[in-house]
Predict the 3D structure of the following.
Amino acid sequence: MAARSTIKPSTRCWSRGWTGLIESERSRVALSDDELEAAYRRLERPMFNYLYRWFWDAAQCEDLLHDAFERLWKLRRRIDASSLDALAWTTVINLARNQHAARKRWRWLPLPEALVARDDPSQALELDWRDQRLRQALDQLPARSREVLLLELFSGLERAEIARQLGIAEGTLASRKHQAIARIQSLLKESEP
């Protein structure tokens, strides 16, 4: 018969099981507002860059960042300060996955894009077309490959930290990144006029 876990269910991390990101009841020290604010200031830009490459919408990225840190604030009395960055990244990644999945379900509802005045209409058209091709190529990548590529390029995290966040080996991470880049290059060549 297997031994039962002595960890209380209330300490279970909502994203990946028994990760130790949330302290046990016995050793709990409330995370201070200053520590959470410092984490926000430190992580805001890399997280925004990561999210922007998923959604290409600044307002949506800001909303997701707000939601992630609101969740952390609500759990601040149970968060181990030494794991705050890891928990913040896990929260943002999971929210991005959920939002992306929801957006895929409602893709048939076109949203009007904001009109932006540009100096040179032909240059603006070229940039819009190039951006559209890149977005389509990113959308065609498998979710895991896209996630690895975006985290590697825009999160500012070390490769070992990204691998730990995603629960994969560094070699797997490098392989997925290489495959994602090769696939994007292929898709962009296919879509050239």
Notes: The chain is about 65% helix and 0% strand. The chain has two domains: 11-105, 121-193. The chain has a mean pLDDT of 76.
